[in-house]
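Page 42, continued from yesterday. The earlier attempt failed because a stray header line got pasted into the input along with the sequence. Redoing it now with the clean sequence only.
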Amino acid sequence: MSIDSSLDEAYERLHHSGPEFEGWLSNHGPMAVEALVRNGHGDRVHRWLDRYMDRLDELPRGTSPVTADDWRTALGDPRRLGDWLVYFEREVRERPWRAVLETWWPRLLPGIAAGATHGVIRTGHAVHALLDDGNSGDGGADGNGGADPRLTELGQALGYWAARWQPVTVVAPSGAADPASALAAVPPVPDRSAGINHRLGQLPETAGWPAAPAALRPAADADQARELLADVTSAAALHYLPHAHGSPVMLVHAATAPMAALRTLPALPRTQWVPTLHAAWTAAAAVTAAYRPAAPAPQDGLPAAPESAEETFELAARHGDAHVIKLADTCLDVHRRTGRPEALAAVIRAAELIEGM
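This time it went through. Structure tokens are written below.
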């Protein structure tokens, strides 16, 4: 599906605001509008933005340029957010965007937990829009002398990821388990009384970590990595339905983060596909460990799937919350791939548990 002009217009509106608001909350606008347009709801985008944008902060300004010599020092420093945005704005204007992505993806991937995984998720949406628009990877102009809003969006996504870069120890699969079994065996962190940084920080001392995520079967080559990453995404989306009450918002990211990585693969060299699987699987397992409930919800209390995928996304679009919209975008892909009605029911579950906008 080609991305229509409403996405470019939405990006242009959003690019006056920063990637965060109220100190650290992620700006979900660019991700949600891309999902809305992709799924045939471009006519809703501007009304949605009218309600959403009042909460956003202005675009932060740079103070000390990031350079080729000091980028490692600046990586993961949220005080340098404005500097990183300026850096990547220049990068995607002056170099082919695929070359920028090829350089920076392996640098950023170990910090996949950045912004509660929103760095990689926003990047995945931006890349998906560029690929669907047929962008070959050249240049930074829109053909009329102005900046291409899709390239600007990729620059802001990468800049946000770099500023909030948060490393996790990537777990390389080495077992024989399928993704659903491996995800079901992920142990919860012991103290779930604070936010995601506190929870992820407990992973090295959590009993059963990293043994449980390492039990996933490995990929022998790039093609297997792509298929296994798709299976990981499906497993996380299906896992959401009975476990969402552990944290209806945060557990969304266990599915949307690997989906973002999966959608980015076609723009990456095949040599980067296996490492991408490892990092995305670690992110999905880590979010699950941080927020899984003590027990799944009773089956008889779970919603049934709508009759169609279109009806499912229509419900998410009406609901309006960005997490529900993004989960619907992921679950519709999972449903197309697997035919599992639970993928659509997961969206209904999210809409029941998350307050609408």
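Notes: The first helix runs from residue 5 to 14.
Reminder to self: strip header lines before submitting.
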